[in-house]
Design a protein that fits this description.
Helix content: over 70%
Oligomer: single chain
Mean pLDDT: 76
Distance between the termini: 60 Å
Shape: flat
CATH superfamily of the largest domain: High mobility group box domain
Number of strands: 0
Largest sheet: none
Number of helices: 9
Low-confidence stretches: none
Structural class: mainly alpha
CATH topology of the largest domain: DNA Binding (I), subunit A
């Protein structure tokens, strides 16, 4: 009963104040979140990730770490009414994903789960092979991610004066938001450098 009264109060306040509407949407999404973990391709989309995706592409001439830092500040300074646009869009996307998944037959769902399992196992085997190779060769093989960090992190530290771990953390988010074509370009360059004997420090 108490929980029901709180939900009703939250809904009533949400109709009056955008701030309450924003937090009501967050709480409602959390309360209706199902326990089943969806397979790859159906993962949760967050309002912040939509904001980053929408604004990051227009700042390609800036350093990624600087862009991410500025966009993070902009997100924090957005009023709740403006954030609701991204909250609503994220909710819509997540609902579409879940509806699409739930509309599948049990056979299709099981195939997706099996694909996800095989993907995890393949990644684990690949990681083990790489670790064994590194141990044998006594050096770390260059990857697209390592090359990306090598090119961006040092300048990021010099420009912003942040700690290295903070730069790496922000670059990881930027790397995840890069288009597949750009990641492939980094991976291809890293492969060439590795074949030429280049290693990651």
């Amino acid at each position: 009963m108490f929980s029901l009264m709180c939900n009703l109060r939250r809904i009533s306040l949400a109709k009056v104040n955008p701030t309450f509407r924003y937090y009501a949407a967050i709480k409602t999404a959390e309360s209706h979140r199902k326990s089943e973990r969806l397979p790859p391709g159906f993962g949760k989309t967050t309002p912040f990730s939509l904001f980053i995706k929408e604004n990051f592409a227009s700042r390609k001439n800036e350093q990624p770490t600087e862009v991410f830092s500025n966009l993070t500040k902009q997100w924090k300074n957005l009023n709740e009414a403006d954030k609701m646009k991204y909250v609503d869009e994220a909710s819509r996307i997540n609902e579409e994903k879940r509806s699409k998944f739930e509309s599948m037959s049990e056979t299709e769902k099981e195939e997706l789960r099996e694909q996800a399992k095989n993907l995890r196992e393949a990644r684990l085997k690949r990681r083990i092979r790489l670790e064994r190779r590194k141990k044998r060769e006594g050096q770390r093989q260059m990857s697209g991610w390592m090359l990306f960090v090598k090119e961006k992190a040092v300048k990021g530290v010099a420009d912003i004066g942040k700690k290295q771990q903070d730069i790496i953390r922000e670059l990881a988010v930027v790397w995840k938001s890069l288009p597949k074509s750009e990641k492939d370009a980094y991976n291809e360059r890293a492969k060439i450098l590795s074949n030429d004997g280049e290693i990651c420090d």
